[in-house]
Please model this.
Amino acid sequence: MLDLGTNIAAPFAAMMLGDLGADVIKIERPPGGDDTRALPPFWQHDATVFLAVNRNKRSVLLDLRSPDGRTALWKLIESADVVLESFPPGLADKLGLRFGDLRARNPRVVLCSVSAFGDGPLGARMPGYDALVQAVSGLMSFTGQPETPPTRLAPSVLDLTTGMWGLIGIMAALTRRAAGGGGEHVRPALLDSAFMLMCHQLLGFQATGNLPEKLGSGAPSAAPYRVFAAADGDFMLATASDAQFTRLCTVLDLPAMAQDSRFATMAARLAHREQLDSRLAARFIQRPVSAWLEALGEAGLSVGRVNDIRDALSLPVVAERGLFVAPDSLAWPGGLPLLRLPIDPDGVGVRRPPPKLGEHTVEVLREAGMDEATIARLYPTQQPV
Model:
């Protein structure tokens, strides 16, 4: 398969296909390749954003504006099962790389086109990034504390989930093709991913007309369900039933609170959220996090310390789950441990480190049957960049 994408969403979909066994050829443009290669922070000379979503690929450096570059690309497209792209609006038309163009050369090809807003007027005039789509979709409007401006979710949730939808769409298209179908055009958009992530908030709004509110770490349908401050740090408490709330009151030695009409039912607790949280906060601040984790955990309640990444990576469960593949197993001296896919419990899909820019250009073009004179013009040094 060919990965013509850049940034995160399309390359992430391609990387997952690589983990699942596909031979992924990443097409990169000169001089710098994928945009994420230049984004800090860096590990030695490599951008960590690039390293995170580009393993199990072979990098080919092609200038698609040149006749030789386009000839080489079409040679690769003609034998590809899947092509992934995330071109800015209008670029596929300029390059002659629309689905109809690809299908004329390769009727069985599955094209996955990742966009921010799809093919309509907005998508046609505005390139989009994760944070922009978080804003436009409404996702930012109820994220954060009530008194703060709209807040971006820090992880690239729309890029990554759109990559997942792209992968699902590609695999479904390949399954239909194997059953006798032809090529298909899969078109995931970041906007679609945003609305799917908000599915129950959207239905709640449609049902009631009420906009979701900013609740910080709280939940709209359960209380107490938020981060509380203890004497020496913060912890998350999640209760989702009246029975759990009763057990909480027993642990806190506040039996009367479980019978208080303001707190006796979930609906009542939501209506009196601030009063409830205030009473609990006054109790929780009196003891350290470890004491609350022990007492509440023994009562069968869901409770956990609010960790930073350093603390989280030191948890025994991380080693127990075998979440990282060591660079030594990839013949990648000096490299970083790579996070396996959640569906690859043994990490066997992580076979190849992220490529250097243009590292496999000559190798791939020779495999495609390109003549040596064309290869020499495309890549005169015949050395990885």
Summary: The domain at 2-197+355-378 is CATH 3.40.50.10540 (Rossmann fold). The chain has a mean pLDDT of 94. The radius of gyration is 26 Å.
